[in-house]
Design a protein that fits this description.
This protein is mainly alpha-helical. It is 79% helix and 3% strand. α2 runs antiparallel to α3 and α4 runs antiparallel to α5.
Length: 254
């Protein structure tokens, strides 16, 4: 058997296993968490079209208003199901977001004899480079957040399920991953694509960095406010043995 054929079979087997794991995972994670996570990812993509603040040294887009919910959802899933499970959930949310964007785009280009809803069509239709930038930034930050959350949690060997462990791993992973998310998105959108496709509109590198720092700090504040809820959710999942089917499948595969 050639190397190419073996590689194809290995990839097909891996893809099948990932698909099965993802199906079981999505049945195992309580629906409200998955729903809120997916909604937050879609909302971030839409709100990213809106610049809230822009000064010489500062800029913020609307995505900051909802991004905290995405990171809190990932932190909860990482703590209970592990980083790979959160990665799978992130990929699922990204695919749903792309599907929704496609539906919005089709709706925006369908001609209508009614009043001219140009602004509305622009919003729901989206901008291709904003979608590309947000997708790259989201998946990069999700991987960073999930890895850091799990790694920091491993440092608390005496009481890994305690409040200090949960809050520390959430705060550290969120602030770093949120900074990365904002920086990747703002550089790609406002320094690479916007000057070409938005009639010269752009942010400076200083604005991108300050936006990323401020966004990370605001995200940290929101995490401090809402992480106690996340901790209670995780404790409830542990108490009620949520996700046993997923863990059983993992043990069988391993």
């Amino acid at each position: 058997m050639s190397i190419i054929k073996r590689a194809r079979r290995s990839f097909a087997r891996w893809l099948h296993d990932e698909f099965e794991l993802t199906k079981i995972l999505l049945r195992s994670i309580p629906a409200p968490v998955v729903a809120l996570f997916v909604i937050s990812v879609i909302a971030m993509n839409i709100l990213a079209n809106k610049t809230l603040v822009q000064t010489k040294y500062l800029a913020l887009d609307g995505g900051i208003l909802i991004s905290w919910l995405s990171f809190l959802s990932m932190d909860i899933v990482v703590k209970h199901f592990g980083p790979k499970a959160s990665n799978r959930m992130s990929v699922f949310a990204m695919l749903v977001n792309l599907l929704v964007c496609l539906i919005f785009f089709v709706a925006s280009i369908i001609p209508s004899k009614a009043d001219d809803y140009t602004a509305f069509n622009t919003i729901i239709g989206g901008t291709w480079f904003i979608l590309l930038s947000s997708t790259i930034a989201f998946m990069s930050s999700a991987l960073i957040n999930n890895f850091l959350n799990y790694t920091v949690g491993k440092l608390f060997k005496k009481n890994p399920d305690g409040k200090l462990a949960f809050f520390t791993r959430s705060y550290v992973s969120t602030v770093i991953a949120q900074f990365a998310d904002n920086l990747i998105f703002s550089i790609l959108t406002f320094m690479v694509f916007a000057p070409i496709f938005w009639d010269g509109f752009s942010w400076t590198f200083i604005q991108c960095v300050t936006c990323s720092l401020l966004g990370a700090l605001l995200e940290l504040v929101m995490e401090v406010v809402f992480s106690p809820i996340g901790y209670l959710v995780v404790r409830n999942w542990q108490k009620n043995q949520v996700g046993e089917q997923y863990f059983a499948y993992l043990r069988r595969v391993d």
